[in-house]
Specification:
Layout lengths: L5 E5 L3 H12 L3 E5 L3 H5 L7 E2 L3 H5 L4 E4 L4 H11 L8 E4 L4 H15 L4 E4 L2 E2 L2 H6 L2 E6 L2 H6 L1 H7 E7 L4 H29 L4 H9 L6 H11 L9 H17 L5 H15 L10 H5 L1
Helix pairs in contact: 4-5, 9-11, 9-12, 10-11, 12-13
Length: about 290
């Protein structure tokens, strides 16, 4: 259990910063590094040790937690980091990089540092749940490593799903993100229809909330549309990237996802319109 008390976080964006603050609040020692130094520097006041290089960040870490946008970011940084890790450290990979990206990360670890234990643990949830420690953690890896990571998981999430098969967490994340995409685009289009018919979105929420269709996340997004508030809990650009990871995985398995493909095409139009930094429900703006 002592192994997980000293954590290095590589990636201090929205989620990585929330992770750092949660872990510091739980009494763990945290060092941070980001490709943009100012992002990491903001965590100094919270008690994090800010490192100038990723190698410096991980030097004494029992756990290195990666939270970066893409597998390309990992393949650029981790060849420098892995040789600097202490013996038998845990690489806790929490970025959303898809099934193929996860396999590439596993192979990178095995080739460079076979003594390092790889744990695949993306999360379901966005900015608010991350700040409140209410994420769902999708953890896959050796049972002993998952046990050792209990202090980390308890600080970050309200529930941890566990699998021993490496990469299962990332595969589950693709399924959940596809579900999110279907809900998100459905909400945007239902709101567009409601407004074109002169139907109040507040009334839509009340009706949905009174039926078996009730879904708190969906209603919260409908409320954002009603208030014209599109500040990102989960940016549309990231949601689009994640949906393409799901489509890639389906294609590799020779399966068709026609609805997901249609949503991906619609979201590409929204990104082209400059809406990528809006909340995922910002897809509504492209329809309006």
């Amino acid at each position: 259990m002592e192994l997980a008390q000293n954590v290095a976080i590589l990636g201090a964006g929205t989620m990585g910063s929330a992770f750092a603050r949660r872990l510091l609040g739980a009494g763990l020692r945290v060092s941070v590094w980001d490709v943009y130094p100012a992002a990491a520097a903001r965590l100094a006041d919270a008690g994090a040790r800010v490192a100038a290089t990723p190698e410096e960040a991980v030097r004494d870490a029992g756990v290195v937690l990666t939270m970066v946008p893409t597998i390309a970011s990992i393949e650029e940084t981790m060849p420098r980091v892995l040789p600097a890790l202490p013996h038998a450290a845990i690489w806790l990979q929490m970025s959303t990089i898809g099934a193929d990206g996860t396999e590439r990360a596993i192979a990178l670890a095995k080739e460079s540092r076979p003594d390092v234990v790889f744990v695949d643990a993306p999360v379901s949830g966005s900015k608010g749940p991350a700040e409140e420690g209410k994420l769902l953690i999708l953890a896959s890896g050796p049972s002993a490593a998952l046990d050792a990571l209990a202090p980390v998981f308890s600080a970050l999430g309200q529930k941890t799903m566990r699998w021993e098969r490496p990469g299962t967490g990332s595969r589950m994340k693709l399924v959940l993100n596809t579900w999110l995409a279907v809900l998100g685009e459905g909400i945007a289009e239902a709101a567009t229809l409601a407004q074109s018919l002169g139907v109040s979105l507040n009334d839509v929420s009340t009706c949905i909330g009174s039926t078996a269709l009730d879904a708190p996340w969906a209603l919260s997004k409908l409320d954002k549309i009603e208030r014209d508030a599109f500040d990102p809990d989960f940016a549309l650009a990231l949601a689009s990237k994640d949906l393409h990871l799901a489509l890639d995985a389906a294609n590799d398995a020779h399966r068709r996802l026609p609805m997901a493909q249609a949503i991906a095409t619609q979201w590409e139009s929204a990104l082209a319109a400059g809406l990528g930094d809006r909340d995922v429900i910002g897809a509504y703006l492209a329809l309006r």
